[in-house]
Amino acid sequence: MNILKLKNWYKEYEIHILSWLFFILFEVVVTGIVYQVFYSVGNYIIHYIINISIFYFHAYGVSKILISNVRYKPWLIFFFLILEIALYLGLAFGLELLAAHTYDPELQKAIQPSFKYFLRSAYRAIYFIGFSTGYVFLLNSIRERKRVQQLEKQNLINTIEKQALENDLVQSQNNFLRSQINPHFLFNTLNFIYNDARKKAPLAADAIMNLSEMMRYALKRPEASELVPLSEEVEQIEHLINLHKLRTANTINFNLEVKDDLFGLRFPPLILLTLVENMFKHGNIAHSSQPCVVQINYDRKSLVISTLNMINDVKKKEVESHHVGMENIDKRLNNFYKDRYSFKFYKDDTNRYFTEIRIDIENPMAGLNQHSNA
Predict the structure, then answer these.
(1) How far apart are CA 64 and CA 105, in angstroms?
(2) Residue 345 pairs with which residues in a beta bridge?
(3) How confident is the model over 282-329, as pLDDT tens digits?
(4) For 55, 222, 244, 267, which has the most beta carbons within 10 A of its beta carbon?
(5) pTM of this prediction?
(6) What angle do CA 331, 334, 335 make, to 5 degrees?
(7) How far apart, in whole angstroms, are the C-alpha atoms of residue 147 and residue 152?
(8) Is 269 helix (H, G, I), strand (E, B) or coil?
Protein backbone atom coordinates (compact mmCIF):
# COMPACT_ATOMS: atom_id res chain seq x y z
CA MET A 1 0.00 0.00 0.00
CA ASN A 2 2.90 2.36 0.87
CA ILE A 3 4.56 1.59 -2.46
CA LEU A 4 1.30 2.39 -4.25
CA LYS A 5 1.01 5.71 -2.40
CA LEU A 6 4.62 6.50 -3.26
CA LYS A 7 3.96 5.77 -6.94
CA ASN A 8 0.88 7.98 -6.94
CA TRP A 9 2.81 10.77 -5.21
CA TYR A 10 5.65 10.51 -7.72
CA LYS A 11 3.22 10.53 -10.64
CA GLU A 12 1.58 13.70 -9.29
CA TYR A 13 4.88 15.57 -8.77
CA GLU A 14 6.97 13.88 -11.46
CA ILE A 15 7.52 17.03 -13.52
CA HIS A 16 8.69 18.95 -10.41
CA ILE A 17 11.11 16.23 -9.33
CA LEU A 18 12.64 15.75 -12.78
CA SER A 19 12.91 19.52 -13.36
CA TRP A 20 14.78 20.07 -10.08
CA LEU A 21 17.09 17.11 -10.66
CA PHE A 22 18.01 18.39 -14.11
CA PHE A 23 18.47 21.97 -12.84
CA ILE A 24 20.65 20.93 -9.88
CA LEU A 25 22.80 18.63 -12.01
CA PHE A 26 23.27 21.31 -14.65
CA GLU A 27 24.09 24.07 -12.15
CA VAL A 28 26.51 21.95 -10.09
CA VAL A 29 28.39 20.77 -13.16
CA VAL A 30 28.55 24.20 -14.83
CA THR A 31 29.55 26.16 -11.69
CA GLY A 32 32.05 23.47 -10.72
CA ILE A 33 33.75 23.63 -14.12
CA VAL A 34 33.70 27.45 -14.27
CA TYR A 35 34.97 28.09 -10.74
CA GLN A 36 37.05 24.90 -10.50
CA VAL A 37 35.53 24.01 -7.14
CA PHE A 38 33.16 21.28 -5.99
CA TYR A 39 31.71 21.14 -2.47
CA SER A 40 30.64 18.18 -0.36
CA VAL A 41 27.36 16.38 -1.03
CA GLY A 42 26.00 17.49 2.34
CA ASN A 43 26.74 21.11 1.49
CA TYR A 44 24.87 20.80 -1.81
CA ILE A 45 21.91 19.10 -0.12
CA ILE A 46 21.51 21.86 2.49
CA HIS A 47 22.10 24.55 -0.12
CA TYR A 48 19.39 23.31 -2.51
CA ILE A 49 16.92 22.50 0.25
CA ILE A 50 17.02 26.20 1.16
CA ASN A 51 16.68 27.29 -2.48
CA ILE A 52 13.82 24.90 -3.27
CA SER A 53 12.09 25.90 -0.04
CA ILE A 54 12.24 29.62 -0.87
CA PHE A 55 10.94 28.81 -4.37
CA TYR A 56 7.76 27.10 -3.12
CA PHE A 57 7.35 29.39 -0.09
CA HIS A 58 7.32 32.42 -2.39
CA ALA A 59 4.97 30.71 -4.87
CA TYR A 60 2.51 29.82 -2.13
CA GLY A 61 2.63 33.26 -0.50
CA VAL A 62 2.26 35.25 -3.72
CA SER A 63 -0.59 33.00 -4.90
CA LYS A 64 -2.47 33.60 -1.65
CA ILE A 65 -1.95 37.36 -1.92
CA LEU A 66 -3.11 37.47 -5.55
CA ILE A 67 -6.37 35.61 -4.86
CA SER A 68 -7.09 37.54 -1.64
CA ASN A 69 -9.35 40.59 -1.44
CA VAL A 70 -6.87 42.76 0.49
CA ARG A 71 -6.01 46.25 -0.73
CA TYR A 72 -2.55 47.47 -1.79
CA LYS A 73 -1.45 44.06 -3.12
CA PRO A 74 1.77 45.41 -4.76
CA TRP A 75 2.96 46.86 -1.41
CA LEU A 76 2.04 43.64 0.38
CA ILE A 77 4.03 41.60 -2.14
CA PHE A 78 6.98 44.02 -1.73
CA PHE A 79 7.07 43.62 2.07
CA PHE A 80 6.63 39.87 1.69
CA LEU A 81 9.64 39.85 -0.66
CA ILE A 82 11.79 41.77 1.87
CA LEU A 83 10.76 39.33 4.60
CA GLU A 84 11.65 36.35 2.39
CA ILE A 85 15.11 37.69 1.59
CA ALA A 86 15.80 38.40 5.28
CA LEU A 87 14.69 34.89 6.25
CA TYR A 88 16.74 33.40 3.45
CA LEU A 89 19.90 35.27 4.52
CA GLY A 90 19.58 34.21 8.14
CA LEU A 91 18.71 30.61 7.34
CA ALA A 92 21.37 30.25 4.63
CA PHE A 93 24.12 31.68 6.85
CA GLY A 94 23.21 29.46 9.78
CA LEU A 95 22.86 26.24 7.79
CA GLU A 96 25.94 26.84 5.65
CA LEU A 97 27.96 27.53 8.78
CA LEU A 98 26.61 24.31 10.31
CA ALA A 99 27.37 22.33 7.14
CA ALA A 100 30.91 23.71 6.97
CA HIS A 101 31.52 22.87 10.61
CA THR A 102 30.13 19.34 10.12
CA TYR A 103 31.43 18.35 6.69
CA ASP A 104 34.26 20.73 5.80
CA PRO A 105 35.86 22.71 8.66
CA GLU A 106 38.19 24.45 6.20
CA LEU A 107 35.18 25.97 4.44
CA GLN A 108 34.12 27.59 7.68
CA LYS A 109 36.81 30.22 7.22
CA ALA A 110 35.22 31.32 3.93
CA ILE A 111 31.81 31.79 5.52
CA GLN A 112 32.02 35.12 7.31
CA PRO A 113 29.16 37.62 7.90
CA SER A 114 30.43 40.21 5.39
CA PHE A 115 28.63 42.55 2.98
CA LYS A 116 29.94 40.54 0.03
CA TYR A 117 28.68 37.28 1.51
CA PHE A 118 25.18 38.66 2.19
CA LEU A 119 25.05 40.34 -1.23
CA ARG A 120 25.83 37.01 -2.87
CA SER A 121 23.18 35.24 -0.73
CA ALA A 122 20.63 38.00 -1.46
CA TYR A 123 21.28 37.58 -5.19
CA ARG A 124 20.75 33.83 -4.81
CA ALA A 125 17.44 34.42 -2.99
CA ILE A 126 16.22 36.89 -5.64
CA TYR A 127 17.34 34.43 -8.34
CA PHE A 128 15.02 31.67 -7.06
CA ILE A 129 12.25 34.12 -6.13
CA GLY A 130 12.31 35.29 -9.74
CA PHE A 131 11.90 31.72 -10.96
CA SER A 132 9.10 31.24 -8.45
CA THR A 133 7.29 34.38 -9.61
CA GLY A 134 7.41 33.17 -13.21
CA TYR A 135 6.10 29.79 -12.04
CA VAL A 136 3.15 31.48 -10.26
CA PHE A 137 2.18 33.55 -13.28
CA LEU A 138 2.52 30.51 -15.54
CA LEU A 139 0.14 28.55 -13.30
CA ASN A 140 -2.30 31.46 -13.20
CA SER A 141 -2.16 31.72 -16.98
CA ILE A 142 -2.90 28.00 -17.34
CA ARG A 143 -5.77 28.21 -14.83
CA GLU A 144 -7.21 31.23 -16.63
CA ARG A 145 -6.99 29.46 -19.96
CA LYS A 146 -8.75 26.40 -18.51
CA ARG A 147 -11.43 28.68 -17.00
CA VAL A 148 -12.02 30.35 -20.37
CA GLN A 149 -12.18 26.96 -22.08
CA GLN A 150 -14.65 25.76 -19.44
CA LEU A 151 -16.82 28.85 -19.98
CA GLU A 152 -16.74 28.32 -23.73
CA LYS A 153 -17.65 24.66 -23.22
CA GLN A 154 -20.51 25.63 -20.89
CA ASN A 155 -21.78 28.20 -23.39
CA LEU A 156 -21.74 25.52 -26.07
CA ILE A 157 -23.61 23.11 -23.79
CA ASN A 158 -26.18 25.84 -22.98
CA THR A 159 -26.65 26.52 -26.69
CA ILE A 160 -27.13 22.81 -27.40
CA GLU A 161 -29.59 22.48 -24.49
CA LYS A 162 -31.52 25.52 -25.68
CA GLN A 163 -31.71 24.04 -29.17
CA ALA A 164 -32.84 20.72 -27.68
CA LEU A 165 -35.56 22.50 -25.69
CA GLU A 166 -36.74 24.28 -28.80
CA ASN A 167 -36.84 20.94 -30.60
CA ASP A 168 -38.82 19.45 -27.69
CA LEU A 169 -41.31 22.30 -27.92
CA VAL A 170 -41.68 21.83 -31.66
CA GLN A 171 -42.18 18.10 -31.08
CA SER A 172 -44.84 18.81 -28.45
CA GLN A 173 -46.59 21.15 -30.84
CA ASN A 174 -46.41 18.59 -33.62
CA ASN A 175 -47.83 15.90 -31.34
CA PHE A 176 -50.57 18.28 -30.30
CA LEU A 177 -51.42 19.21 -33.86
CA ARG A 178 -50.20 16.66 -36.41
CA SER A 179 -51.20 18.34 -39.65
CA GLN A 180 -50.26 21.87 -40.61
CA ILE A 181 -53.14 23.18 -42.69
CA ASN A 182 -53.55 26.81 -43.68
CA PRO A 183 -54.98 28.29 -40.44
CA HIS A 184 -57.36 30.74 -42.15
CA PHE A 185 -58.83 28.05 -44.37
CA LEU A 186 -59.05 25.62 -41.44
CA PHE A 187 -60.80 27.97 -39.01
CA ASN A 188 -63.14 29.42 -41.65
CA THR A 189 -64.19 25.87 -42.54
CA LEU A 190 -64.66 24.88 -38.89
CA ASN A 191 -66.67 28.03 -38.25
CA PHE A 192 -68.93 27.20 -41.21
CA ILE A 193 -69.43 23.62 -39.97
CA TYR A 194 -70.10 24.86 -36.42
CA ASN A 195 -72.78 27.33 -37.55
CA ASP A 196 -74.40 24.68 -39.74
CA ALA A 197 -74.36 22.03 -37.00
CA ARG A 198 -75.34 24.24 -34.04
CA LYS A 199 -79.10 23.75 -34.56
CA LYS A 200 -79.07 20.26 -36.02
CA ALA A 201 -76.42 18.61 -33.81
CA PRO A 202 -75.50 20.76 -30.78
CA LEU A 203 -73.13 18.10 -29.37
CA ALA A 204 -71.17 17.98 -32.60
CA ALA A 205 -71.12 21.78 -32.69
CA ASP A 206 -69.64 21.90 -29.18
CA ALA A 207 -67.00 19.38 -30.20
CA ILE A 208 -66.10 21.48 -33.24
CA MET A 209 -65.83 24.62 -31.11
CA ASN A 210 -63.57 22.94 -28.52
CA LEU A 211 -61.38 21.46 -31.23
CA SER A 212 -61.17 24.80 -33.00
CA GLU A 213 -60.01 26.58 -29.83
CA MET A 214 -57.38 23.94 -29.13
CA MET A 215 -56.01 24.08 -32.66
CA ARG A 216 -55.97 27.87 -32.59
CA TYR A 217 -53.94 27.76 -29.35
CA ALA A 218 -51.52 25.16 -30.71
CA LEU A 219 -50.86 27.23 -33.84
CA LYS A 220 -49.68 30.23 -31.78
CA ARG A 221 -46.26 28.46 -31.60
CA PRO A 222 -44.64 30.38 -28.73
CA GLU A 223 -40.84 30.52 -28.54
CA ALA A 224 -39.09 27.90 -26.40
CA SER A 225 -37.87 30.65 -24.05
CA GLU A 226 -41.32 32.22 -23.57
CA LEU A 227 -43.86 31.74 -20.80
CA VAL A 228 -47.59 31.84 -21.51
CA PRO A 229 -50.54 32.66 -19.23
CA LEU A 230 -51.32 29.57 -17.16
CA SER A 231 -55.02 30.41 -17.41
CA GLU A 232 -54.83 29.82 -21.18
CA GLU A 233 -53.30 26.38 -20.58
CA VAL A 234 -56.16 25.61 -18.18
CA GLU A 235 -58.69 26.66 -20.83
CA GLN A 236 -57.15 24.19 -23.27
CA ILE A 237 -57.41 21.42 -20.67
CA GLU A 238 -61.10 22.24 -20.27
CA HIS A 239 -61.54 22.01 -24.06
CA LEU A 240 -59.70 18.66 -24.07
CA ILE A 241 -61.88 17.29 -21.26
CA ASN A 242 -65.04 18.47 -23.03
CA LEU A 243 -63.97 16.76 -26.24
CA HIS A 244 -63.42 13.45 -24.44
CA LYS A 245 -66.75 13.80 -22.65
CA LEU A 246 -68.50 14.33 -25.96
CA ARG A 247 -66.59 11.43 -27.53
CA THR A 248 -67.43 8.99 -24.72
CA ALA A 249 -70.98 10.18 -24.03
CA ASN A 250 -69.87 11.70 -20.73
CA THR A 251 -68.61 8.39 -19.29
CA ILE A 252 -65.19 9.66 -18.20
CA ASN A 253 -64.45 10.34 -14.54
CA PHE A 254 -62.19 13.38 -14.68
CA ASN A 255 -61.89 16.34 -12.29
CA LEU A 256 -60.05 19.63 -12.86
CA GLU A 257 -59.56 21.59 -9.63
CA VAL A 258 -58.11 25.11 -9.74
CA LYS A 259 -57.59 26.89 -6.44
CA ASP A 260 -57.05 30.65 -6.29
CA ASP A 261 -56.98 33.11 -9.17
CA LEU A 262 -54.34 32.43 -11.84
CA PHE A 263 -54.56 35.90 -13.36
CA GLY A 264 -51.18 37.13 -14.55
CA LEU A 265 -49.36 33.90 -13.68
CA ARG A 266 -47.22 32.62 -16.56
CA PHE A 267 -45.97 29.10 -17.19
CA PRO A 268 -43.97 27.17 -19.85
CA PRO A 269 -46.27 26.26 -22.76
CA LEU A 270 -47.73 22.79 -23.38
CA ILE A 271 -46.28 21.21 -20.22
CA LEU A 272 -49.65 21.05 -18.48
CA LEU A 273 -51.35 19.86 -21.66
CA THR A 274 -48.74 17.11 -22.05
CA LEU A 275 -49.45 15.83 -18.53
CA VAL A 276 -53.20 15.75 -19.18
CA GLU A 277 -52.78 14.09 -22.59
CA ASN A 278 -50.71 11.37 -20.90
CA MET A 279 -53.55 10.79 -18.45
CA PHE A 280 -55.98 10.24 -21.34
CA LYS A 281 -53.46 8.11 -23.23
CA HIS A 282 -52.17 5.88 -20.41
CA GLY A 283 -54.77 6.21 -17.66
CA ASN A 284 -58.08 4.57 -16.88
CA ILE A 285 -60.24 7.69 -17.31
CA ALA A 286 -63.51 5.83 -16.75
CA HIS A 287 -62.67 4.24 -13.39
CA SER A 288 -65.78 4.24 -11.23
CA SER A 289 -64.23 4.87 -7.81
CA GLN A 290 -60.98 6.66 -8.63
CA PRO A 291 -61.38 9.74 -10.82
CA CYS A 292 -58.53 11.28 -12.76
CA VAL A 293 -57.64 14.47 -10.92
CA VAL A 294 -55.71 17.56 -11.97
CA GLN A 295 -55.11 20.04 -9.16
CA ILE A 296 -53.61 23.51 -9.52
CA ASN A 297 -52.82 25.34 -6.28
CA TYR A 298 -51.39 28.86 -6.30
CA ASP A 299 -50.98 30.81 -3.05
CA ARG A 300 -48.79 33.71 -4.33
CA LYS A 301 -45.70 32.05 -2.83
CA SER A 302 -45.73 28.71 -4.61
CA LEU A 303 -47.42 26.96 -7.52
CA VAL A 304 -48.24 23.26 -7.21
CA ILE A 305 -49.62 21.26 -10.15
CA SER A 306 -50.44 17.63 -9.41
CA THR A 307 -52.14 14.84 -11.33
CA LEU A 308 -53.51 11.48 -10.25
CA ASN A 309 -54.96 8.66 -12.33
CA MET A 310 -55.36 4.92 -12.35
CA ILE A 311 -53.11 3.19 -14.89
CA ASN A 312 -54.90 1.46 -17.72
CA ASP A 313 -54.01 -2.25 -17.45
CA VAL A 314 -54.28 -2.67 -21.20
CA LYS A 315 -51.59 0.01 -21.74
CA LYS A 316 -49.14 -0.90 -18.98
CA LYS A 317 -46.28 -1.35 -21.46
CA GLU A 318 -46.87 2.16 -22.82
CA VAL A 319 -46.56 3.64 -19.34
CA GLU A 320 -42.81 3.00 -19.36
CA SER A 321 -42.40 4.72 -22.73
CA HIS A 322 -43.93 8.00 -21.63
CA HIS A 323 -41.17 8.47 -19.02
CA VAL A 324 -39.20 10.03 -21.87
CA GLY A 325 -41.90 12.69 -22.09
CA MET A 326 -41.61 13.23 -18.34
CA GLU A 327 -37.86 13.72 -18.66
CA ASN A 328 -38.39 16.30 -21.41
CA ILE A 329 -40.79 18.15 -19.11
CA ASP A 330 -38.15 18.09 -16.38
CA LYS A 331 -35.55 19.58 -18.75
CA ARG A 332 -37.86 22.40 -19.78
CA LEU A 333 -38.78 23.19 -16.17
CA ASN A 334 -35.09 23.28 -15.27
CA ASN A 335 -34.44 25.68 -18.15
CA PHE A 336 -37.00 28.14 -16.75
CA TYR A 337 -36.81 27.69 -12.98
CA LYS A 338 -33.34 26.21 -12.23
CA ASP A 339 -33.29 25.34 -8.50
CA ARG A 340 -36.72 26.84 -7.77
CA TYR A 341 -38.74 23.80 -8.83
CA SER A 342 -39.24 20.11 -8.19
CA PHE A 343 -40.86 17.54 -10.46
CA LYS A 344 -41.90 14.07 -9.30
CA PHE A 345 -43.63 11.23 -11.11
CA TYR A 346 -44.16 7.71 -9.81
CA LYS A 347 -46.56 4.75 -9.58
CA ASP A 348 -47.76 3.41 -6.21
CA ASP A 349 -48.68 -0.11 -5.14
CA THR A 350 -52.36 0.40 -5.97
CA ASN A 351 -51.62 1.03 -9.67
CA ARG A 352 -52.08 4.79 -9.38
CA TYR A 353 -49.83 7.22 -11.23
CA PHE A 354 -48.85 10.55 -9.66
CA THR A 355 -47.08 13.62 -10.98
CA GLU A 356 -46.30 16.81 -9.08
CA ILE A 357 -44.71 20.07 -10.19
CA ARG A 358 -43.82 22.45 -7.37
CA ILE A 359 -42.43 25.92 -8.13
CA ASP A 360 -41.27 28.39 -5.50
CA ILE A 361 -42.26 31.92 -6.34
CA GLU A 362 -39.48 34.30 -5.27
CA ASN A 363 -41.84 37.22 -4.64
CA PRO A 364 -45.53 37.99 -5.21
CA MET A 365 -44.77 39.42 -8.66
CA ALA A 366 -42.56 36.50 -9.76
CA GLY A 367 -43.86 34.77 -12.85
CA LEU A 368 -45.89 37.82 -13.90
CA ASN A 369 -45.22 39.43 -17.26
CA GLN A 370 -42.22 37.17 -17.68
CA HIS A 371 -41.04 36.36 -21.17
CA SER A 372 -37.60 34.89 -20.67
CA ASN A 373 -35.94 32.09 -18.77
CA ALA A 374 -36.20 32.31 -15.02
Answers:
(1) 41
(2) 355
(3) 899 988 889 999 999 998 889 999 999 999 877 555 545 556 678 889
(4) 267
(5) 0.47
(6) 90
(7) 9
(8) coil
